[in-house]
Structure formats: C-alpha cells, structure tokens
Design a protein that fits this description.
Elements: H1 7-27, E1 34-40, H2 44-60, E2 63-69, H3 75-86, E3 93-96, H4 106-112, H5 124-128, H6 140-151, E4 160-164, H7 171-181, E5 185-189, H8 196-200, E6 205-208, E7 226-229, E8 233-236, E9 244-247, H9 252-255, E10 261-262, H10 269-289
Parallel strand pairs: 1-2, 1-3, 4-5, 4-6, 6-7, 7-10
Antiparallel strand pairs: 8-9
Helix pairs in contact: 1-10, 2-10, 6-7, 6-10
Length: 291
C-alpha cells in the first residue's frame, strides 16, 4: 500500500539515529544510558509490552533493567522504590508499567516520579510543558504520533484535525500537541460525542485513541483524509491460533480505500510509542552529558 503510515519503518530509522548518538557518546568515555522498568504483578499484556521495551533498549545500547514486583505490594512499598530511583544519579529514567493493582493509586505514583526521569511523560510537569516554549519529556504516544506527522509530511497548517479520545496521557495530550505545533483547527471528541460523523466527515486529519474496534467507518471520512489510529483492542478470531486478533479504532480495510495516508494496527503507533520512550531517555542522557 502506498498510503500506509509504516510505524515499524520509522521506528527502525529512529533507532538507528539513537544508536549512533549513544555510540558516539560512549566513544567519548561516557557511560551508556540507563533506565529501569517497574512491573507490578503478572498482567499478561504488560509483560509483552515490557519485553518489547527491554528489547528496544538493548537494540540501541540503552542499559535497561526490569524490576519485577509482587502484585500484593502496597502503596508505601512502591513509593519507597520510586523514591530510591528518583535519587539514583546513575539512572537516566524509569517507567512504572500500567495498569497497577487496585490497591495502588496510579495518580499518587505518577505524582511521586521525578519529572526529569519520567520518560513516559506522564507527570504534570511534563504534560504541562506541552503548552510551554520549553518542551520537557513529552507523553510517549503523543510524541510518536507527532513524529509520524512530521516524517510523513502531513500538512496540518490551517487544516481541520479531529482527535477521538480525550484521556489525559493520550488523546488530550495529542490534541494539545496539535494545537501547539501548527495553526490547525483541533476538535476533541469521544465515543459518546453526538453526531460524531458530522465532525469527522470534514476532517483533514483524524487521530483516534478510543479503544473501540471499528469505531471509524468509511462513511465517516472524506476522500484524501489522513488517519492515525492509536486505538488497540482484542477481538475474537477463530482463524488465529490465539483465538483473537488485534485491531484499531478504524475499519482499516474500507477506510484505507479513501485515505491518503493511514496507520495500521498493529505496526503503526505502537512501535512509535516504544521508540519515543527511547527518544525521551536519550534527551535526558544528552542533557546530562551535554551532548
């Protein structure tokens, strides 16, 4: 498909760029970048995501260590671990993999993370910097989306952009990034927005991050629209060995016939989210060593 937004390809290119920068720094006598990933419990999808992040770090020369914690850990115990990581000068950043067990407050965890080590870009300080002239560590998924827009030269200047999904770390953050990046008209919707089609049908760019399979159908978009699908869901599929398949928010088969550019699921935003964690890590590292 010549209208495919290939997140795997772009992520691979960025990994090569990161590898070169890290190799150069190490050749100057500096240590390698270093991060840790906290995984609480045995949540299946989380293990898959964490393994992908560890593998990506290894591929570019980032030292990444997994801290695997029991799912009955309490808030105070996890807070103590986070405080130690905050004070570790040899650590460039860390990730607390979500979701967390019910006894743990996600918001309290995020508030405790040192913003300068928040490579997920979830803290208030980092998300707040989206609207600042001095950007800090951007939310990883949003950074991945904006990178795809840049690398595929998607023109959003004076264009109508519709974002489906208003979550703080994803949809809402992406909307803010679009507002800040160009002179675009940005409309934020959600799955309950009335007359959704009336808003999407005229959009030049649609970014969907709702998590509802096939929410965006062919009759909801105009010919030539650019679409970035952030949504990810499992749906039953008896033809698959696993019994399910991964799909996005967009009816890819039919919408792709009208779109000028469209990202697939999987293989679109997913790889870009992971590579954005690497970019954030590199930013912290380069600032620290003044590279």
């Amino acid at each position: 498909m010549n209208n495919l937004i290939d997140g795997k390809k772009v992520a691979s290119e960025i990994k090569d760029e990161i590898t070169q920068k890290i190799s150069y720094s190490i050749s100057k006598g500096n240590r390698a970048p270093s991060i840790k990933i906290i995984l609480v419990g045995g949540h299946g999808p989380s293990k898959i995501y964490v393994n992908a992040k560890l593998k990506a770090c290894e591929s570019v020369g980032i030292d990444a260590e997994l801290l695997s914690l029991n799912d009955n850990i309490n808030q105070d115990e996890l807070s103590g671990i986070i405080k130690k990581l905050n004070s570790d000068d040899n650590l460039d950043g860390f990730i607390v993999q979500l979701p967390l067990p019910d006894q743990i407050s996600v918001q309290k965890v995020i508030e405790l993370i040192d913003p300068s080590k928040d490579i997920d870009g979830f803290t208030n300080d980092n998300i707040g910097s989206i609207t600042s002239k001095k950007k800090k560590l951007m939310p990883a998924t949003g950074l991945g989306v904006m990178t795809l827009i840049e690398r595929y030269n998607i023109d959003i200047d004076s264009k109508k952009c519709v974002v489906l999904g208003a979550s703080r770390n994803v949809g809402g953050a992406i909307a803010q990034m679009l507002v800040e990046r160009e002179d675009a008209t940005v409309i934020v919707c959600n799955s309950k927005t009335k007359n959704l089609k009336s808003l999407t049908i005229d959009a030049d760019l649609i970014v969907s991050a709702v998590g509802i399979p096939n929410l965006v159908t062919s009759d909801m978009v105009k010919k030539g629209v650019a679409i970035i699908d952030v949504g990810i869901s499992r749906v039953k599929d008896s033809s698959k060995k696993s019994g399910y398949k991964i799909v996005g928010d967009v009816d890819f088969e039919n919408v792709s016939k009208k779109a000028s550019l469209i990202s697939p699921v999987p293989g679109g935003v997913g790889p870009m989210t992971i590579v954005s964690l690497l970019k954030n890590t590199l930013k912290v590292y380069c600032d620290k060593f003044k590279i």
